[in-house]
Amino acid sequence: FMRAVTLLIVVRVLQVAEVWIILLALLPDKGAGWLLLLSLLTQAISQLLTWVLSIVPGQIGVAEAGSALLFKLLYLDPLVGFSMELIRRIRKILGIVIGLLIGWLVGMRSEKQYRATVIPKQQCELDSHLESKL
């Protein structure tokens, strides 16, 4: 249980760090400390919206609209909030694609190893069985 809680905390800290790094790039004129607070607030609101609006299929547009609204309420450019979530969505999609590609490559490698070891052995057993019948 403690391991799961620890991993959850680590994931949340990494998510805040991700938002902070994106905001540093999108708002270079703002202070790093202020952007860290903004990233904490953004991540908290984003998580809350995700829980509340879990009925939306695929969460399409929920994070983007939520961040744009939050930035507007904070008298910041809503486009920055939208852009931040769009960058995060692209990073998630790229991560999924890379994971699927790795899985496919590992699967192909395992299938080649299976064909190289198991199928010839089965063929050899089948040949010896057929020879004994003749």
**Averaged pLDDT, please?**
87
Number of strands: 0
Query: Which structural class do the helices and strands define?
Result: mainly alpha
Span from first to last CA?
63 Å
Rough outline: elongated
Q: What is the CA-based Rg, rounded?
A: 25 Å
DSSP helix count? 4
In percent terms, what proportion of residues is strand?
Answer: under 5%
Helix percent reads: over 70%
Task: Flag low-confidence runs.
Answer: none
Order of secondary-structure elements: HHHH
Largest sheet report: none
Concise structural overview:
With 134 residues, this protein is mostly helical. It is built from four helices and no strands.
Helices and strands in order, then pairings?
Blueprint: H1 2-26, H2 32-52, H3 62-73, H4 78-133
How would you describe this structure in keywords?
134 residues; 85% helix; mainly alpha; elongated; 4 helices
Task: Provide a descriptive summary of the structure in words.
This protein is mostly helical and 134 residues long. 85% of the residues lie in helices and 0% in strands. The chain has helices spanning 2-26, 32-52, 62-73, 78-133. The longest helix is centred in the C-terminal third of the chain and has 56 residues, at 78-133. It is elongated and about 90 Å long.
